[in-house]
Backbone:
């Protein structure tokens, strides 16, 4: 157990564990963190966040946010986050379909375009983690 | 001499009042516990976000003379906006009037600093108060209190930010009841915009600089709106918890007053009854005397 991981969302502190490795979806591509990582602050995409603890992988779906590493402490400030078995697949599927439907009738200039496409990405992240 | 039946009626009505205030106190206590819980749960996110923000902002600011992001840049303030957070319902002691009084004081104190101070209101009480006053209302957000949701806070924050960026207002303040404990609330006025970041601590400044992904400015542009939303969210939560706390205290003392009143009335009632019996006895006795 070489690093600690904290996941906090605006609603609550979701997780606080010691682990060996964290893999996260950065905006410039996925990255991994192990012991003695250099101080690092990255924005996160909606996607899969994994931590490895004693050879076992635990998966979380995060809906964007930030990740900060300093002194072997990893802090994830997620806009939303769910453990794999807490994901509501039916709801994610519905979100995905509705948002895709709305996106279809929009142009890229539409002011809601960014919001809806973010919704699609979050739903996709949930679905891919749940499967 | 008070009529026996009248006293009995009053005792009955005070008793039902006591029942209502007691029930309201209980409801407020239950809601307070939930509201307090919500504050505690958001606290880690808010603190960690603030810390990350101050780290990035402090280092970004150290690079150049000019502020790293427009939202951090103070400017000559002409117009100010104060967002008042109050409740929809009364019967909460001085909860609402404290906020209103504080905002009035803020306006008189800053009368020469700002050409105009506008108000925006959350909750019905503040809206009703300012409706008939010579103050320019910017916006009112009602229906926020019925069910507190983070999205609503985000919405308000976005509107405020947009107005600030457009130059309509030059400073935005939040005025709300800060939750200290169930029996004490404290009205505060906090500056929301431009964003003031706490200075980086010694250890932060001394430590190695972070690697940033994507870049400092982009990260700031991402962090700041979240920070502003969190400030608004916190104000809403603190105010909700304070409201329930204030109502609980108010209803507690109302229940106590009702109890006292019932005691006094019961005493009056018994006295009157005693007097009535005595009077009747006297009549019987004197009637019997007369027959002798």
Residues:
């Amino acid at each position: 157990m070489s690093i600690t991981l904290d996941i906090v969302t605006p609603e609550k502190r979701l997780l606080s564990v010691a682990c060996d490795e964290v893999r996260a979806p950065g905006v410039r591509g996925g990255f991994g963190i192990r012991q003695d990582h250099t101080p690092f602050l990255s924005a996160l995409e909606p996607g899969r966040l994994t931590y490895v603890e004693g050879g076992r992988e635990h998966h979380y779906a995060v809906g964007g946010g930030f990740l900060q590493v300093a002194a072997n402490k990893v802090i994830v400030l997620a806009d939303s986050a769910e453990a794999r078995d807490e994901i509501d697949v039916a709801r994610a599927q519905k979100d995905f379909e509705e948002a895709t439907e709305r996106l279809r009738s929009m142009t890229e200039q539409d002011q809601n375009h960014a919001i809806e496409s973010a919704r699609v990405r979050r739903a996709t992240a949930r679905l891919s983690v749940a499967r | 001499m008070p009529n026996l039946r009248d006293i009995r009626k009053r005792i009955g009505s005070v008793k039902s009042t006591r029942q209502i205030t007691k029930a309201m106190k209980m409801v407020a206590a239950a809601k307070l516990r939930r509201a307090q819980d919500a504050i505690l749960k958001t606290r880690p996110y808010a603190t960690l976000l603030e810390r990350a923000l101050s780290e990035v902002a402090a280092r970004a600011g150290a690079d150049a003379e000019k502020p790293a992001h427009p939202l951090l840049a103070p400017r000559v303030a002409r117009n100010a906006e104060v967002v008042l957070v109050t409740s929809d319902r009364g019967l909460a002691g001085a909860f609402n009037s404290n906020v209103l009084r504080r905002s009035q004081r803020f306006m008189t104190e800053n009368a020469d600093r700002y050409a105009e101070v506008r108000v925006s209101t959350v909750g019905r009480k503040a809206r009703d108060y300012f409706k008939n006053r010579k103050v320019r209302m910017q916006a009112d957000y009602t229906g926020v209190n019925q069910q507190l949701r983070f999205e609503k806070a985000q919405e308000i924050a976005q509107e405020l930010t947009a107005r600030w960026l457009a130059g309509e207002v030059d400073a935005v303040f939040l005025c709300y009841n800060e939750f200290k404990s169930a029996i004490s609330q404290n009205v505060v006025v906090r500056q929301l915009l431009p964003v003031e970041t706490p200075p980086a601590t010694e250890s932060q400044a001394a430590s190695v600089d972070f690697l940033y992904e994507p870049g400092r400015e982009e990260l700031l542009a991402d962090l700041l709106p979240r920070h502003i939303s969190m400030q608004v969210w916190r104000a809403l939560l603190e105010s909700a918890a304070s409201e329930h706390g204030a109502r609980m205290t108010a209803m507690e003392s109302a229940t106590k007053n009702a109890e006292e009143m019932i005691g006094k009335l019961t005493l009056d009632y018994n006295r009157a009854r005693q007097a009535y019996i005595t009077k009747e006895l006297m009549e019987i006795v004197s009637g019997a005397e007369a027959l002798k």
